[in-house]
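Posting this for the archive.
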Amino acid sequence: MEATLTNTDFNFPGQKSVYHGKVRDVYNIDDRQMVMVATDRISAFDVVLPEGIPYKGQVLNQIAEYFLDATADIVPNWKLAVPDPMVTVGIKCEPLKIEMIVRGYLTGSAWREYKAGAREICGVSIPDGMRENQKFPHPILTPTTKADEGHDENISRDEIIARGIVDANVYEQVERYALALFERGQKMAAERGLILVDTKYEFGLHDGKVILIDEIHTPDSSRYFYADGYEERFEKGEEQRQLSKEFVRQWLIANGFMGKAGQKVPEMTPEYCREVSQRYIELYEHITGRKFQPADEANLAARIERDVTACLKTL
C-alpha cells in the first residue's frame, strides 16, 4: 500500500501555532505567512475517516494551485509559493467570518429546503415550479456564517451587514469577486466537458485589501456534473453523473454509515483506499486536463519539512 500522510507535527522556522482541520493542517509563521498542508485525510458527514487516501493531498493541493493561478487576474489571492506537491505557502490574512456559496443549479441542501417548501434562501427568492438539478436563470449567492464551533448557518446579505459581520463596502466587493470567480470556473469546467454546479469561496483582509484565501474549485468544495447527458437525465428526473467525492458518501451509506451516533465506519481495506485514490487522480486529470505526476512518497513528512523550510528562507 502506498504511503499516506494523515497527521502532521511540524516545527517550521518562525512557527507560532498550528490549526488541524478535517483535511488541512495550517501553520502560522511569524503572523506573516501560512503554511497549508493538504493531508491524505478524507472526511464525510463531518467525520474524518480512519484511513488515508494515497495522493489525495497532492491532488487537492494541485487542483487548488491550478485554479488560484487561473483566477489571479480577477482577485488577488493568498498564494505565495507551492514548495511541495502537498503544500501551499501564502499570506496570513484576517479571515472574513462568512463563506460565499455560489449556486448555479438547484441541488443539494438548497433543493432539500426548496422541496420542504422554502421559496427564499439567504434572502434570495426562488421561483415556484423548479425541479431538482434545474439551472437557475443566473447564479445565486447563499452565504453562510463561519462557525467557530458547530455547523455553519445560512445568512442573508442584509443580516451580514446589519450585524456588522462584514462591512457593507467589503461585502459588495466580495460578492462581485465570488460571482466573477464562479463565471470563470464555469467557463473552465465547460471546456473540460463539465458543469460547475456550486462551490464556496473564502476571503480575508490583508492591509485592508480583500484577498481570496484557502482553496477553490476542488472536489472537496465544489460540485461538478458531467455536461454530456445532463439535459437527458434532467428531463427524465434521473440522478446526474457527478465528479466529486459523492462516491465515497454513497459507499458509506450503502454500508450503513451516515455519521450518526452509534454508527461504525465500514472497514476501509487497502484495495478500497487504492480505488478511491484512483478516482481522485481521475478527478485531477479531468478537471485540469493535465496528466497526474505522483510525487516521491518515500518519506512524506521529511520531504515536506525540507521543501517548506527551504521555501521560508526565501520569503
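The two ends are 36 Å apart (CA to CA). The chain has a mean pLDDT of 95.
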